[in-house]
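haha ok so turns out i had the wrong file open the whole time. this is the CORRECT one, sorry everyone. sequence first:
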Amino acid sequence: MSSGSASSSLPGGPVVEPGFLRRGRVPPRRRRALAVARAGVIGGAILLCAVGVSRLLSSSLLTVRRFEISGNRRARTEEILVTLAPYRTKNLLTLDLAPIADRLLAHPWVERVTLAKRFPDGLEVRLSERRAVALWRNGPRLLWLGSDGRPIAAHDPRVDSSDYVIVSGDLRALPEVVGLLEDLRARRPEYYAALSQIDALPDAGFGMMDSIFRRPIRVLRRDASEKIAALLRARSLMESRGWEAQAIDLRFADQIVLVGAYGGGHSL
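then structure:
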């Protein structure tokens, strides 16, 4: 055997490694103790986390204390705050935003809601309101009429004294009235600016009053824009010939019919 050998053996027998090279074995009892200790450390860490989360959830640091409201013009901020009042002092971290959005959408002017948590204690509320296009005369009352043809809320002249087209007619006719208004606004803005009233007629079509001709003008929705353009072009001719009429009917194909004692028998 050489002096540099790392192992020794007997002739024909197994190689025997020196004791300092053999891998130590941990006794079973010690392994169980290590496993128990490891489990205790993990359990302690989980318990500390649970206690920390519990304290965080019950802490006043994450209590809702302020609301940042924007986008509202018709809906009063005071009304929005009343709707949000039940959620003040709630925990912001666990606050469910869906019920808050549903409550805000119940307001007649609110069309869309965007909510965002602003830690540590704020809730951002961004509103999009319905667009009013006219006033609907419903008996003695005036109600705001939305761009979807549905009434919104009662009109209060003390709050808004702006001029709007006044609409009258059955509730079912309102979407068609709004469609007519939008057509005129987009394609005949000069006439739309002079328009003051639209009535749904019982015999089809609509009657309109304006500050240009100052007499009822009867139209059909499908070609009202083109017929109004033709009427505006014929205005100077009608004035030069002194043709007066109690009403102007544009519901006939390729004709402008002047109705009344001074316009009877005249058509363009």
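Residues 134 and 162 are 11 Å apart (CA to CA).
again sry for the mixup
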